[in-house]
Design a protein that fits this description.
There is one protein chain. This protein is an alpha/beta fold and 358 residues long. The chain is 28% helix and 26% strand. The protein has two domains: 2-156 and 328-356, Medium-chain alcohol dehydrogenases, catalytic domain (Quinone Oxidoreductase, Chain A, domain 1, Alpha-Beta Complex); 161-302, NAD(P)-binding Rossmann-like Domain (Rossmann fold), CATH 3.40.50.720. It contains eleven helices and 18 strands. Bound molecules: NADP nicotinamide-adenine-dinucleotide phosphate (NAP). Residues 38-40, 162, 182, 184-188, 207-209, 212, 253-258, 262, 279-281, 303-305, 349 line the site of NADP nicotinamide-adenine-dinucleotide phosphate. GO terms for molecular function: metal ion binding; oxidoreductase activity.
Length: 358
């Protein structure tokens, strides 16, 4: 089969002919139908987002059809259309260890251990390929997806699921006011869609890119765009004006911003007893005064990936039309030119996505 392969982090992504994966215990072979190529994939391939277990077929997430399963696999069946999360847990309840397959990312404190190394050695697999062998625990059957009219749009389901995990952890209630920091990115755009579906009363979309903000504002009257100025006090004042007061929930989905100012501007407008969820890729420390967090009784939560139950719940929202994939603008690419595909993915923003149809 053909696959986008990463031999080492400095070798670049290449199209290779590799052996077809065979089913084995605990795993299922998928024929990949549609896989979103995240905007930051080129940076990741160049080593800008942490280590990847190489050599590997690259690619996380995706929609595929199950071709074959190991004898002991019952979560998915041949013929099922499934979402692959790439999110593998050791399953040890007391001390769970988690990794992403075919991608960068180790859970917990982010440090590789003998267990995470073994997990990534056993399942050296990614989804930017014609086929993928994945552990069954990372696959979610999507009943009804075989009739979905547009698989290129459905490829956004893994990113929507991550956003749904963040919205859940924010305990968002219908009518709440939400700020999404980094709303102009793909995870931020997904968070706006999920917050709207959850019945948010107002969603303040906060970010730099004006075209992305306009696209979000056109989604729904409840979306209020705020263009980031990168000045904490001025940004917080603009957010407060857009909210007409304070935010019940903040979800920060920013990429690697050079300072914590954008995150802290959103923190500044949280109401007393409010919740802030960090789901993005900011690499800065946050200057949060102890007494402020304590007196405002704030809840600060992290959110990394999401459960299979959240993935299934997100699919049900998509299927019911509560999350409208027509909001996406999709560019479709094939496997033949990985360099060009990564450049195209990097050039799009927010609710514009690039989908690989292997
Ligand atoms: N927690 C999880 O489970 C999880 C899962 C997947 C990804 N992530 C992380 O989430 C982050 C966002 O992912 P994504 O797919 O949305 O990426 P993306 O589409 O590249 O979006 C990045 C966002 O960050 C903003 N940004 C980037 N650099 C900035 C800077 N220097 N100053 C201000 N804003 C900046 C972008 O603003 P503009 O649009 O204005 O450029 C955009 O809103 C990534 O860093 C990724 O590592 C986390």
């Amino acid at each position: 089969m053909k696959a986008w392969t990463l031999t080492s982090l400095d070798a670049g992504l290449t199209l290779e002919e590799v052996p077809d994966p065979q089913p084995r215990s605990g795993g299922a072979v998928l024929r990949m139908l549609a896989v979103q190529v995240p905007a930051y994939t080129r940076v990741l391939v160049a080593g800008g987002r942490g280590g990847i277990a190489t050599p590997t077929v690259l690619g996380v997430g995706g929609i595929g059809v199950v071709e074959a399963v190991g004898d002991d696999v019952h979560a998915v069946r041949p013929g099922d259309v499934v979402m692959s999360s790439g999110f593998l847990s050791s399953g040890r309840v007391a001390e769970p260890e988690e990794v992403l397959l075919g991608w960068t990312g180790i859970g917990g404190r982010g440090t590789a251990t003998g267990t995470t190394d073994a997990m990534r050695r056993t399942w050296r697999t990614g989804t930017f390929a014609e086929r993928a062998l994945m552990p069954a625990s990372t696959l979610i059957a999507l009943p009804g997806a075989e009739d979905h009219p547009d698989l290129a749009r459905l490829a956004f389901l893994p990113w929507l699921t991550i956003a749904a995990g963040a919205v859940e952890r924010g305990d968002l209630a219908a009518g709440d006011s939400v700020v999404v920091a980094g709303a102009t990115g793909q995870l931020g755009g997904a968070t706006v869609l999920l917050a709207l579906a959850a019945g948010a009363g107002r969603v303040v979309a906060f970010g730099r890119n004006r075209a992305s903000l306009e696209r979000l504002a056109a989604l729904d009257d409840r979306v209020v765009p705020v263009a980031a100025l990168a000045d904490r006090a001025a940004d917080a004042a603009a957010l407060a004006r857009a909210l007409g007061g304070d935010a019940d929930v903040v979800v920060d989905a920013l990429g690697p911003a050079p300072t914590s100012d954008l995150t802290m501007a959103a923190y500044d407008v949280l109401r007393t007893d409010g919740t802030m969820v960090l789901v993005g890729g900011v690499r800065q420390s946050l200057p949060i005064p102890y007494s402020d967090l304590m007196h405002r009784r704030l809840t600060l939560r992290g959110s990394w990936m999401a459960s299979n139950e959240t993935a299934y719940a997100t699919w049900r929202q998509v299927r019911a039309g509560l999350v409208d994939l027509d909001a996406l603008q999709v560019t479709t690419v094939g496997l033949n030119d990985p360099d060009q595909a990564l450049a195209q993915a990097e050039a799009v923003r927010g609710l514009e996505i690039v989908t690989l149809r292997p």
